[in-house]
């Protein structure tokens, strides 16, 4: 944890906060070895960066005061991720990576080759999605939580998840550049060499078996370009890590930094 991310739910009054999450309390006391009177790097969700001065320590609670140093700004240009259904552990890794890097929006959808049993996983519960995102955010010192969208209903007892194709309409009307991951595509650097540096980009991450031929045709019809991240076969979370690394290198080469 490289940043203590404070949320509205933890606000006591004015700039006073109470942290009761066991994992974070343990990390601050036993890993960072912080005590009363000492400070840790902190941030307010979707707002600012600053420091948190510890004023009281109990077994399962840390109280302190937050001092803002600067208002944070989201990454620009925006990066949007559309991901097919993945294995629940993979979803957790994707969310953490997204939170670390500062992806602006993530949407999960059912693709033709997705495994439908993943729809019933508890990973899709709002609190679980938020937990994984914020773990990544604290790792990457990012205070801006990605917007989450599920193109299916969350699992409920005795109810079958309802799927929606709204994500296809989202692609058709997307205001920026669209790319889908495909080992037969071109490199991201070559496809974006002459692109406007402020262009919003959306990337489509496929399921473990890959995209169907019909899906690829549909992507091309809405102007999406195939990109290759590696000649090796990558797991979904590895592909996302490669993508974010290459995207960051491209932005830095164009003089755009986080």
TrEMBL record:
| Molecular function via GO | rRNA (uridine-N3-)-methyltransferase activity
Enzyme's top EC category:
transferase
Q: Which compartment or compartments is the protein found in?
A: Cytoplasm
Chain ranges of the Ribosomal RNA small subunit methyltransferase E methyltransferase domain? 77-245
Has the keyword Cytoplasm been applied to this entry?
Answer: yes
InterPro entries membership: Alpha/beta_knot_MTases, RsmE, RsmE_MTase_dom, tRNA_m1G_MTases_N
Q: Give the UniProt record's GO annotations in the biological process aspect.
A: rRNA base methylation
CDD domains (alphabetical)? RsmE-like
Q: Provide the E.C. number(s) assigned to this enzyme.
A: 2.1.1.193
Coarsely, its chief localization is cytoplasm
Which UniProt key words apply to this protein? Answer: Cytoplasm, Methyltransferase, rRNA processing, S-adenosyl-L-methionine, Transferase
Query: Per its record, how is this protein called by name?
Result: Ribosomal RNA small subunit methyltransferase E
Question: What's the stated role of this polypeptide?
Answer: Specifically methylates the N3 position of the uracil ring of uridine 1498 (m3U1498) in 16S rRNA. Acts on the fully assembled 30S ribosomal subunit.
Q: Which reaction does it catalyse?
A: uridine(1498) in 16S rRNA + S-adenosyl-L-methionine = N(3)-methyluridine(1498) in 16S rRNA + S-adenosyl-L-homocysteine + H(+)
Q: Name one GO cellular component term.
A: cytoplasm
Known Gene3D superfamilies for this protein? Answer: 3.40.1280.10
Q: Which Pfam families match?
A: Methyltrans_RNA
Q: Which family does it belong to?
A: Belongs to the RNA methyltransferase RsmE family.
Q: Which organism is it from?
A: Leptospira fletcheri
